[in-house]
Amino acid sequence: MKELVGKSVQELRALLGGKAVSAREVLAAHRQHIDSVEPELQAFNCLTEDLAARQAARVDKLIADGEVLPPLAGVPIALKDNICVPGYPTTCSSRILESYRPPYQATVAERLQEAGAIFVGKTNLDEFAMGSSTENSGFKPTRNPWNTAMVPGGSSGGSAVAVASGMSVIALGSDTGGSIRQPASFCGVAGMKPTYGRVSRFGLVAFASSLDQIGPLGRCLEDVAITLSVISGHDGKDSTSLSLPVPEYVKELTGDVEGLRIGVISELTGQGMDAEVLESVELAARQLGQLGAGVEEVSLPATRHALAVYYLIATAEASANLARYDGVKYGYRHRQAEDLLSMYRASRQEGFGVEVKRRIMLGTYALSSGYYDAYYKKAQQVRRLIKEEFDRAFARFDLLVCPTSPTVAFEFGARTGDPLQMYLSDIATIPVNLAGLPGISIPCGFGKSGLPIGLQLIGPTLGDAQVLRAAHAFEQATEFHKKRSPVLSAA
Ligand code: GLN
Fold first, then answer.
1. Tell me: the pLDDT tens digits for 448-461?
2. For residues 348 and 333, what is the distance between their CA atoms, to the nearest angstrom?
3. What DSSP string describes 49-69?
4. Is the CB of 177 under 6 A from ligand 1?
5. Residue ranges with strand state E in 200-289
6. Can you tell me the distance from the alpha carbon of 216 to that of 77, in angstroms, rounded to the nearest whole number?
7. Under a CB-based contact definition with an 8 Å cutoff, are residues 96 and 348 in contact?
8. Rounded to the nearest 5 degrees, what angle is found at the Cα of 149, between the Cα atoms of 146 and 153?
9. Which of 7, 22, 80, 425 is catalytic?
10. Across residues 133-141, what is the average pLDDT?
11. Residue 450, burial from CB neighbour count under 10 angstroms (0-12, 13-18, 19+)
12. Cα–Cα distance list, 191 to 34, 148, 221, 222, 429 (Å)
């Protein structure tokens, strides 16, 4: 049983297709592993056992009937707990949604289900995806499987841990400013934010709608590529989803980066980044050069303003999106209030955590009359400049690279007292969301303490395939992705 944990999508497919194992056995092996490591890691808000059993039975029936297996048949997947699956809570790790059970299914969940995936559970996150460590979860922090004294990153920390520890093969996260890539980097797995609009956001609880994007995490690039093909594509239920054909991303994994022009972003490979991170990223860039890519420095001065711009736009959008949690329509309601206004106030006061309140206040301020032009409008203008700067860079380069995060995973509590320190975790990922571009984090080294380091590859709009291709070529030429977290290698 144990040997079924830690496998890739294609490995499982071969075993299932050859009738060497059943989907039920694959699921049981993962359940057993979850039982042994989850008490310490705390990656899940809930396990979706009944659903998983039904999904596995369906896949076994396909196998028995000799049907062609869909691309994710029998593959255990974890979903971030801000993605709606009916029959189970969708909490966003917030007290205000603790009892919320969505009546509808997210489009990504529907597509995964059709592709034969087995949903093992809903993963922990920073409340409403606001944070970089899962310490803002209203329920519990999740621990990093490489060293349980460290945070796993965030906000999709639970999803990254599920994959890195082997509790699932793949996972979905959401990324508004780095929430897939940064935890992927901290947990030594691959995590991709697709081009904005590539994947439907229907059924994803909104944080900042012009930035949010769902994407896959996996232990190898092939798993990420297969999952991305499954979840991508137009959806009439999300007006921002792009109406364009979806490539079979896995076919793009040719291993070839010959002639690719790669720019190393100078603003994100200097000051503010830890030396060990820079060293690994420089070696990685050199390696890409040895594989045949042309590697040069490129300057993107406007990215310096990205963090400030993000914390105006993301908070402004969040303040609007989170206005719906008023104790009437959703979740938690304060019961003793004497009038409506006090009920609103008490429900929100008790239901939201500190960081969420901070963001609602910041965003409301940025949008208020008298300050709107100075803050929100100005931020939108600078966002445009950042986007244009990327466009100019992509006239000269096919891909850009930099570290995913300035540091490796940090200790619990190290940044909770200083929001700005926490925000700086995403200094290299946020510009990518502001410009709507595809970006991936892949393992590219280990720090002195043995913790994983992530390389970020960024592509032009709809350049998802070339991002995957270069990441895969690097993966194939290196050994970093083969090193497993102690929790998984002991399985
Ligand atoms: N850490 C960033 C924030 O706190 C990004 C979060 C995300 O991508 N959801 O907003």
1. 999 999 999 999 99
2. 8
3. HHHHHHHHHHHHHHHHTTPPP
4. yes
5. 213-218, 261-265
6. 10
7. yes
8. 65
9. 80
10. 98
11. exposed
12. 21, 21, 9, 12, 12
| Phi, psi (rounded to 5 degrees) for 69 | -80, 135
How far is residue 376's CA from residue 395's CA, in Å, rounded to a whole number? 29
Ligand 1, atom nearest to 174 Cα = 9
Name the amino acid, one letter, at 370.
G
pLDDT score recorded for residue 490: 83
Averaged over 56-81, what is the pLDDT?
A: 98
* Whether residue 135 has its Cβ less than 6 Å from ligand 1: no
Q: Hey, what are 113's tokens? A: 């289900």
- pLDDT of 223 over the 80 cut: yes
User: Active site includes 80?
Assistant: yes
Element (H, E) at 453: strand 452-458
Domain ranges across the chain: 2-300+389-489, 303-385
Say what the pLDDT of residue 330 is: 84
Question: Rounded mean pLDDT of the chain?
Answer: 97
Structure tokens at 228: 């991305």
Ligand 1 pocket check for 155: Cβ under 6 Å? yes
The verdict on whether 155 is a catalytic residue reads: yes
Give how far the C-alpha of residue 348 lies from the chain's centroid of Cα atoms, to the nearest Å: 27
Helix-strand-coil percent breakdown of the chain, rounded to 5?
45, 15, 40
Helices (H), 271-377: 275-290, 306-321, 340-351, 354-367
Scanning 368-484, the segments in alpha helix (DSSP H) are 378-396, 419-423, 430-434, 464-477
The reply to whether ligand 1 has any atom less than 6 angstroms from the CB of 55 is no
> For residue 2, what pLDDT is reported?
67
CATH number for the domain formed by residue range(s) 2-300+389-489: 3.90.1300.10
- Assess whether the C-beta atom of 426 lies below 6 angstroms from ligand 1: yes
Q: How far is the CA of 486 from the centre of ligand 1 (A)?
A: 27
User: What pLDDT is attached to residue 1?
Assistant: 63
Q: In a 3-state reduction of DSSP, which class is residue 208?
A: coil
Q: In angstroms, rounded to a whole number, what is the distance separating the alpha carbons of residues 12 and 22?
A: 10
Distance 22 CA to ligand 1 centre (A): 38
State the average pLDDT over residues 169-198.
Answer: 98
CA of 143 to the centre of ligand 1 (A): 18
In sequence order, the β-bridge partners of residue 218 are 170, 190
The SS3 assignment for 118 reads strand
